[in-house]
Amino acid sequence: MAIFEFKLPDLGEGVMEGELVKWHVKEGDPVKEDQVLAEVMTDKATVTVPTPKAGRVVKTHGKEGDMAKVHQLLVTLEIEGAAPAQAAGHGAAAPAPAAATAAPVAAATAAAPAPTTKVLATPVTRRMAREHGLDLATIAGSGPQGRVTKADVKAALEGGAEKNVVAPAAQQVRPAAPPVSAGRADERVPLRGLRKKIAEKMVRSKFTMPHFAFVEEVDATDLVALRARLNKQLAAAGDNTKLNYLPFIIKATIAALKKFPHLNANFDETTQELVVRGEYNIGMAVATPDGLTVAVVKDADRLTLAELAQETARLGVAARERKLKLEELTGGTFTITSLGQSGGLFATPIINHPEVGIMGVHKLKQRPAVKDGQVVVRDMMNLSLSCDHRVIDGSVAADFVYEVIKYLEKPDLLFLAMA
Fold first, then answer.
1. 108-147 per-position pLDDT tens digit
2. Catalytic residue chosen out of the listed positions 71, 389, 399, 412
3. Residue 6 confidence class, pLDDT cut points 50, 70, 90
4. Are 76 and 362 in contact (CB under 8 A)?
5. Among this protein's residues, is 389 annotated catalytic?
6. What region, left, alpha or beta, does residue 382 occupy, with left being phi > 0 and alpha being psi -120 to 50 degrees?
7. Using CA atoms, how far apart are residues 72 and 80, in angstroms rounded to an integer?
């Protein structure tokens, strides 16, 4: 018998560490070659890490919730015959869904910068600083909670060091929050995995982007009737496709984005530029058992209503079953979030960074409305748009929402927009 030390393999370009989300083995377990040992979450995705050799687990290194560095010792195995004392493994398996959020999530690794505390920065920022010989502890972070960003490192490299670099002695330690007192019946739930990534992304978005919201109601009576007619026609033709309202909303949103392209954009924090996207990759927020995940419908403008219905249904199932591919989680240009009949009257959704706008779709229900001077019962719902006020003005947001409403209240116009 021999001892084999398995180290965390490379997890992707530019990824230097990841959170140890879940162990799939424990000490004493027998393992087969390629059996999954653990799940590790990086900035980009959650990956499963398989063992390159069969044997018995002697020791696992690290506990769930810890940050593990690439090439750090992960598992000690007892194997048959002679073996090298250590190995860096043979790669991680295909990624599973990470977050949205929203979609791509920046990972925080420690507390605020201080001489005795690990500097808060993403793995990409750490690598950038290391390649240029910079000590992150000497750079003042401009990000949330003192995070050192790529822009901070770039400023230090481009001669902004005199205003961006601080001496270690001058660094200020952010006061720690007082601990929450414990009660006898309390349960403490560690913040880890997808929920931790969601928390990090929400904090980053809210503290980086000055949010504002605009809310308006939609008379969806004609949309309800059109959807019913189309579903009846699909059924008569033997097509099992079932249209819900999301494909119509996506099409209306794309038509509005074409008129207001600055909302179909990402904001580059490093260069302080608005990147107006040429594609229409629409994120859809999906509630999963682990938390909210943003799956991305790529090139949504090229899909028909029926194709959108099929693709959104497929992505929803894949998200809930944790089977989304990395490319289905990234590259979004604008996000739509809806809880269907649980959507409430309205909300102020948090923007899916680095996008600059997100639209909430709320409960569709019959309620009194005034039409042609008469009070009548109509199918009504509300839309709420949150925008990054650095690049989107209130008047643009309002005009965008009214453009979406135009297509939802007169849905026949969608067919002209798709022509």
1. 333 333 533 456 777 677 777 777 777 777 787 777 656 7
2. 389
3. very high
4. no
5. yes
6. beta
7. 23
